């Protein structure tokens, strides 16, 4: 059974850093495309970052330079290192597995339960 | 302002048909990129509902269907049930931005 479990969220001051983890089971992280999606309180979903199976990484403009996505194959875990955090980064952060449809378009088939990051002084 | 436009809210009664629209642009849905749909029940994570415009993952009830034409896509719920009260999001890819995008979400109320 595929399962994704995020951790690492919490309260951090503006300008601070936090590292989120997403422990996967039921499949191998480094053989898949893995993504982070966030949701600000009362708002919609926002795609944040993706890491391809080959290791290429991509970011939304809003987090480029500040955030770094990575993985640990030995722990089958995905990470999101978040630096220079701002109030507007406050959100629930979900990790999700990306899959490809018949037209080679990517969608997110499994999601974790999310971890809340609150940036406030 | 989301790249994909959805109505903020809709309502429908069991026995009716509810359609949620998702409109993109020439750099997203109009460029041929597929649309995928997610259901988010209150206080839970999103769940995949439709992928590749019209495909249902196993376990998703047949009352949910999807379609796409040109720059717009639709999610139709035929005979919504009380348990379908949720937020629904469409998702695609935008070639101008170079990454994946979501609609702003539609809150469905079942009367």
> What is the H/E order of chain A?
EEEEEEEEEEE
Secondary-structure element order of chain B, N to C:
EEEEEEEEE
Shape of chain A: globular
Q: What's the story with the biggest beta sheet of chain B?
A: 6 strands, mixed
Largest sheet of chain A: 7 strands, mixed
Residue windows where pLDDT falls under 50 for at least 5 positions of chain B? none
Overall form of chain B: globular
Mean pLDDT of chain B: 95
Mean pLDDT of chain A: 97
Report the largest inter-chain contact.
A-B, 26 and 29 residues
Strand content of the residues of chain A, in percent?
over 45%
Question: Alpha-carbon distance between the termini of chain A?
Answer: 40 Å
Counting DSSP E segments of at least 2 residues, the number of strands of chain B comes to 9
Radius of gyration of chain A: 14 Å
- State the share of residues found in helices of chain A, binned by percent: under 10%
Report the sheet-strand fraction of chain B: over 45%
């Amino acid at each position: 059974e595929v399962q994704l479990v995020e951790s690492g969220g919490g309260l951090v001051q503006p300008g601070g850093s936090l590292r989120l983890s997403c422990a996967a089971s039921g499949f191998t992280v480094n053989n898949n495309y893995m993504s982070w999606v966030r949701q600000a309180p009362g708002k919609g979903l926002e795609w944040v970052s993706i890491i391809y199976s080959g290791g290429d990484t991509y970011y939304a403009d809003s987090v480029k330079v500040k955030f770094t996505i990575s993985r640990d194959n030995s722990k089958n875990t995905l990470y999101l290192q978040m630096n220079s955090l701002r109030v507007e980064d406050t959100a629930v952060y979900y990790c999700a597995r990306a899959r490809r449809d018949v037209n080679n378009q990517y969608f997110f088939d499994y999601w974790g339960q999310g971890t809340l990051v609150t940036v406030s002084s | 302002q989301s790249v994909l436009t959805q109505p903020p809210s809709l309502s429908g009664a069991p026995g009716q048909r509810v359609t949620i629209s998702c409109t993109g642009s020439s750099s997203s849905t109009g460029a041929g990129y597929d649309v995928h749909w997610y259901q988010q029940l209150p206080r839970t994570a999103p769940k995949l509902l439709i992928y590749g415009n019209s495909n249902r993952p196993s376990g998703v009830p047949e009352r949910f269907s999807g379609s796409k034409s040109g720059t717009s896509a639709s999610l139709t719920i035929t005979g919504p049930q009380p348990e379908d009260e949720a937020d629904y999001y469409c998702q695609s890819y935008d070639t101008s931005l170079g990454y994946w995008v979501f609609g702003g979400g539609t809150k469905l109320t079942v009367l």
